[in-house]
Specification:
9 helices, 15% strand, globular, binds pyridoxal-5'-phosphate
Length: 257
Amino acid sequence: MTAEFEPVPAHGEPPRGAPSAPTPARLAGVEAGVVDRLHAFESDLEAQLSLCGRRREEVHVIVVTKYHTPELAEVLYAAGQRDFGENTLQGLHAKLEAGGSALESARWHFIGQLQRKKAGQVARLAWAIHSIDRTELVDRIDRVELDHAVDAFVQVSLDGQPDRGGVLIEQMDALVERVLASPHLRLKGLMAVAPLGADADPAFERLQELSARIRRVAPEADSISAGMSGDWQAALRHGATHLRIGTAITGKPVSAR
Ligand SMILES: *Cc1c(COP(=O)(O)O)cnc(C)c1O
């Protein structure tokens, strides 16, 4: 089952990009605006960070490429982007196996709801998993052979509706303990998505309080994965360290235009 995909090399710092290198011909079809949007997002981010009195080094921008081609991710990689997000095993695999691409050296973050039977394969391919929301996922990951530790975020449900993913707050501490006991996972912190149709600010404020709570038992687990295209400014105000940005940088998926 798990032999279906080749394990990726152990983690190391991805090589720096060469933004001045000529674009390979097969990338010519990617919409040129994507690199402009990456740069525009970076300058919006700088502005918001200075409003919050925070530094750029505190924040990781993960570009979510889930509705887009490997070529689009490659263009962003060539522009220097190193962290990317996918929400399915299939999507992750498609990006990694895209022929002759540099994408194997990128850091891939798994951000989607994770099925137990796919957890081991995702752990082999991903740099980080942001959606650990039940102990059976950890049990499954601990049973596979890995040549690298995987960064892990415990996803919490801020609206108490776990069908959107996330552990109920009452069960968070027990799951945190389970991740801390895993030989394969390295607990980075908490992840959440803002409740639908509600103000993101109080939700992310609550997440920041929960983060302070887990740091009493796991002081290194100080990362907060929060903020998408529509609410990243609120997330930054409440301590987010990992922004998961899709459409603001990639553009809308072709089917939704
Ligand atoms: C798709 C997705 C994102 C990015 O969403 P945008 O609104 O396109 O920025 C972030 N986080 C999760 C969990 C997602 O599924």
